[in-house]
């Protein structure tokens, strides 16, 4: 909230995989196949908005579909990143400076390979001095 030119930052922690999966199953009205549940949790990184857009778009495209009885939802093809999510991320990054972009690139790299890479090696690449 901004008051008199200052603002209070509210830290919002990522949702757990279980919370993302529970929310998706509530939206869908029945259970997700375990592989689909893992894929949704992994792809959205605990961000509720990303999870919502991801699930809605993949249901709309038919990529995420219920079985014949409607009891279990599974991916019928490789899931896609919804255009609405791409547009949202692009809109939020329009005013990012070169230095901020470099920092975000390093964070994205850490997220992609956090188990395979060593953080000190990544930090040597920093360009925001």
Report on this structure.
The chain has a domain at 1-80. With 129 residues, the protein is mostly helical. Residues 114-129 have low confidence and may be disordered. It contains 6 helices and 5 strands. Helix 1 crosses helix 2 and helix 2 (34-44) crosses helix 3 (48-61). The strands form 2 sheets. It has a 3-stranded mixed beta sheet with strand order 3-5-4. Strands 1-2 form a two-stranded antiparallel sheet.
Helix fraction bin? 40-55%
Q: What percentage of amino acids are in beta strands?
A: 5-15%
Largest sheet: 3 strands, mixed
Order of helices and strands: EEHEHHEEHHH
**Poorly predicted runs of 5 or more residues:** 114-129
Average predicted confidence as pLDDT: 80
Rg on CA atoms, Å: 18 Å
User: Helical element count?
Assistant: 6
Provide a brief overview of the structure.
By secondary structure, the chain is mainly alpha-helical.
Topology:
Blueprint: E1 2-3, E2 6-7, H1 17-28, E3 31-32, H2 34-44, H3 48-61, E4 64-66, E5 72-75, H4 83-92, H5 98-113, H6 119-123
Parallel strand pairs: 3-5
Antiparallel strand pairs: 1-2, 4-5
Helix pairs in contact: 1-2, 2-3
Entry keywords:
129 residues; three-stranded mixed sheet; two-stranded antiparallel sheet; 6 helices; 5 strands; disordered C terminus
């Amino acid at each position: 909230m901004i008051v008199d030119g200052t603002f209070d930052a509210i830290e919002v922690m990522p949702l757990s995989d279980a919370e993302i999966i529970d929310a998706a199953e509530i939206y869908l009205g029945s259970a997700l196949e375990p592989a689909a549940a893992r894929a949704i949790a992994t792809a959205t990184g605990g961000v509720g908005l990303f999870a919502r857009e991801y699930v809605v778009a993949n249901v709309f495209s038919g990529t995420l579909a219920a079985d014949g009885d409607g009891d279990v939802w599974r991916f019928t093809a490789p899931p896609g990143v919804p255009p609405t999510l791409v547009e949202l991320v692009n809109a939020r990054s329009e005013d990012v400076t070169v230095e901020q972009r470099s920092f975000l690139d390093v964070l994205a790299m850490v997220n992609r390979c956090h188990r395979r890479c060593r953080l000190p090696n990544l930090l040597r690449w920093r360009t925001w001095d």
